[in-house]
DNA sequence: AAAATTAATTATAACAATTATAATCTAAGA
DNA sequence: TCTTAGATTATAATTGTTATAATTAATTTT
């Protein structure tokens, strides 16, 4: 249940030093429930770490990604978003306001299999995003 | 069958002027069968249009996207890729060499429905990418 | 067809996200 | 404690993309 503790253990196991900055970035990622950009994280931790550099955020997000704790997502917009890895889910994205909502759904294994069969690839994983309009934006719509 | 002609008709119908540069960009997109970046296109047409600006490539890719002729794709890597819109297909991407292969498969309507039901979104469309290792890279693998 | 208007292209500058570099600081091990 | 490796900071560099202004080309109006 305690995701932060598990994550810190993962870092320890892989020999990655646990610094206050890393602790805070992980904590933020886990608690935010949003899908923040590097800059979001940087700004959110400004109060706690006035001297922290953006490079630190990027560096550590890369470290977390390499250790498998975090997934990097790129949508159409300018900057990448980062998602703490939990159970398998997809993202539903509002095309009006950019909101991202998790959509829990089992992985599409049969699609992976077929793709592998047709293309000859050794398939490892896949990602999917679903686009539409969120209820908020939908209700604001003018008719 | 003649995709270029159809595409040009679409431009005419929507009142978009057909210039030599646009013609060439479209032609390249249709014939390349790869999924080029803006820079790829720019470089490929350098011989034909020595004075063409990168801005022209970007501008026209945006125009094509707005008219529905082209899809913009963003993966993990730095630059966006552009795909001439044909029938419904997904992309299988090699994590070693970056190669992108089309994988024709009917749309996952039932997933869209469920996502809509669960999240309350008005779902419009989705995208999926499948990641793995292509046969070439797989065979080069050291055991 | 010439003039006027609109749109497209070019060249260039600006911008924003990310990465690289070098210096400083921190922490762990000998 | 001294040494060494790793992490952070500050800053510069890079890269993909967009904005701006001037020029050129194409369409419409006269």
TrEMBL record, chains A, B:
The keyword Transcription regulation applies. SUPFAM superfamilies: Winged helix' DNA-binding domain (SSF46785). InterPro entries: FUR (IPR002481), Fur_C (IPR043135), WH-like_DNA-bd_sf (IPR036388), WH_DNA-bd_sf (IPR036390). Keywords: DNA-binding, Repressor, Transcription, Transcription regulation, Zinc. CDD domains: Fur_like. PANTHER family: PEROXIDE-RESPONSIVE REPRESSOR PERR, ZINC UPTAKE REGULATION PROTEIN. Belongs to the Fur family. This is Peroxide operon regulator.
